[in-house]
Amino acid sequence: MKPATIHELSKDLENRTNTELIALVLRMAKFKKENKELLTYLLRQSDNETLYVEQLKQEISSQFLLINTSSTYFAKKGLRKVLRYMDRFVRYSGNKESEVDLRIHYCIELKNSDVRMDRSVLITNLYNRQIDKITKGIAVLHEDLRFDFLQTMKASDL
């Protein structure tokens, strides 16, 4: 079965009452954890983006403390897990400023962690990809924000 397009779905939703829409959204939220996370962001956290970003930074920092650094293999898996977590919540926000801020925080945490980047080409490439994404994200921001983020990167030696 082929899913409907966004345009078709929006037309169908226009014909529904408020109670029907609430029931549909709640039913959809029951099926996937990501749906509940997105709905939570939209209803409770989207109005205060700075608090949302700060909470994510704290969670990312706590996840970095849990990374097993006994071997490069486990360190790489832990770094990817934290990165997937961050990417999921960045996608919910859709805000480039928040994305750049979180990616800078991730790179700072990676540099300050016990993970040795010189031991693995994969970890170095992971770090370099994040720097590339930061650079591309900074390019689309307002010049004042761009300057602030570039200063943050210089200060943290990224």
Choose one word for the global shape: globular
Number of strands: 0
Given the structure, what is the number of helices?
Answer: 8
* Beta-strand fraction estimate: under 5%
What is the CA-based Rg, rounded?
19 Å
Describe, in short, the structure shown:
This protein is mainly α. It has a domain at 48-155.
What does this structure look like?
The structure is a single chain. This protein has about 160 residues and is an all-alpha fold. The protein has a domain at about 50-155. It contains eight helices and no strands. It has helices at about 5-15, 20-30, 35-45, 50-65, 70-95, 95-110, 120-140, 145-155. α3 packs across α5 (about 70-95) and α4 packs parallel to α6. It is globular, with a radius of gyration of 19 Å. The termini are far apart.
Question: What labels describe this entry?
Answer:
mainly alpha; 8 helices; 0% strand
